[in-house]
């Protein structure tokens, strides 16, 4: 069975992708329980432990999943303006609200500064730039005594790379990627080679050292490979044996091969799409809602706030047990009161660029 055939079997809406999003968003919170409880040096030790392949799979899977689904959105919209509008209303409203809540509510609660100094500090103004994708992590005096000192929302580091993915896909659209689909994998190869060259320039002979994070540029590659799998869905098979081969290959590359993160993305993309195309019965948590983005945005600030309550909170299991459901609650509020209402604006672009003509004899003022 080809991937396209499997997609048709599920009417284009397999539940696997919904479950993967929730699992990955939760995994980000679980991973950050280490740094928010014990600090970044301890997190580095964990990254170099046997858990490294598990941690390194999370974000590339997120981006590969996004690439596959966003490519479908691009194919359905067919116009670049509409595509960019859909991306904007999906990303920015929730991001803007999270940044404002962090700066104007979370910050004043946990800062060691008095309010006048806090709101007049340059770090406060810089943090507000996060709504543009220009990321800053610190607010004045906030979480100054936490194990992960001063870090308000570490997870925002991926936002610029996500925006870069949309920019690259938009450029590929201009070059007719939907018609000449070979452009997508060629671009992925080019970006990988460029990343290797850049790391060689920075690290020299040690260019293939183990980083404590998957390089951000390889998240872009994972996205492009997700796009590639969607475009070649009529050629690529949906096969459990191939899935197992890709899973083992990704784990080996992330865990035991120096610089393996530069080459694991192709395997990660396939295993992500394979799992996404499974279609277990939908539970209430994934029916008509997508809480993953909200959990991704709010998880780290909630973990830092919990950690700031005192040393008694500095246990990874307690951090997970408390912060995961709280993040899910904020994610649900974000979805129902910010993200879902924003998505209703999708028709605005079409109404602006394709106004409905007035019927003959009708009052044009409505």
Please, could you describe this protein's structure?
The structure is a single chain. This protein has 366 residues and is mostly helical. It has one domain (3-353). Helices cover 66% and strands 0% of the residues. It is built from 15 helices and no strands. α8 (159-174) crosses α10 (216-231). The protein starts with a helix and ends in a 13-residue tail after the last helix.
How far is the first residue's CA from the last residue's CA? 52 Å
Structural class, from secondary structure content? mainly alpha
Give the beta-strand count.
0
In what range is the share of β-strand residues? under 5%
Shape: globular
Report the C-alpha radius of gyration, rounded.
Answer: 22 Å
The number of domains is: 1
> Which residue ranges are poorly predicted, with pLDDT under 50 across at least 5 consecutive positions?
354-366
């Amino acid at each position: 069975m080809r991937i396209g055939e499997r997609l048709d079997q599920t009417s284009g809406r397999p539940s696997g992708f919904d479950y993967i999003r929730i699992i990955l968003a939760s995994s980000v919170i679980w991973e950050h329980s280490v740094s928010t409880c014990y600090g970044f040096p301890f997190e580095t030790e964990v990254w170099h432990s046997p858990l490294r392949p598990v941690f390194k799979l999370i974000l590339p899977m997120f981006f590969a999943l996004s690439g596959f689904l966003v490519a479908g959105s691009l194919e359905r919209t067919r116009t670049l303006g509409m595509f960019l509008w859909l991306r904007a209303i999906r990303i920015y409203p929730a991001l803007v609200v999270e940044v404002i809540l962090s700066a104007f509510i979370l910050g004043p609660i946990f800062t060691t500064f008095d309010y006048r100094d806090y709101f007049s500090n340059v770090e406060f103004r810089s943090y507000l730039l996060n709504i543009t994708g220009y990321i800053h992590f610190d607010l004045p005096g906030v979480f100054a005594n936490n194990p992960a000192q001063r870090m308000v929302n570490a997870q925002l580091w991926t936002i610029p790379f996500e925006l870069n993915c949309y920019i690259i896909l938009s450029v590929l659209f201009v070059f007719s990627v939907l018609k000449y689909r070979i452009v997508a994998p060629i671009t992925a190869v080019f970006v990988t080679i460029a990343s290797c060259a850049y790391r060689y320039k920075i690290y020299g002979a040690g260019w293939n050292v183990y980083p404590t994070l998957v390089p951000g540029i390889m998240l872009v590659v994972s996205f492009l490979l997700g796009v590639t799998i969607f475009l070649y869905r009529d050629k690529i098979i949906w096969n459990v044996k191939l899935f197992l081969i890709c899973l083992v290959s990704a784990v080996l590359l992330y865990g035991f091969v120096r610089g393996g993160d530069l080459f694991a993305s192709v395997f990660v993309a396939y295993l992500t799409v394979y799992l996404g195309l499974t279609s277990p019965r939908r539970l209430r948590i994934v029916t008509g809602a997508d809480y993953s983005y909200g959990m991704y945005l709010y998880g780290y600030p909630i973990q830092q706030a919990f950690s700031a309550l005192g040393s008694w909170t500095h246990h990874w299991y307690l951090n997970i047990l408390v912060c995961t459901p709280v993040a899910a609650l904020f994610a649900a509020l974000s979805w129902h009161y910010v993200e879902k209402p924003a998505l209703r604006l999708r028709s605005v672009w079409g109404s602006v660029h394709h106004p409905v003509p007035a019927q003959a004899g009708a009052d044009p003022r409505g």
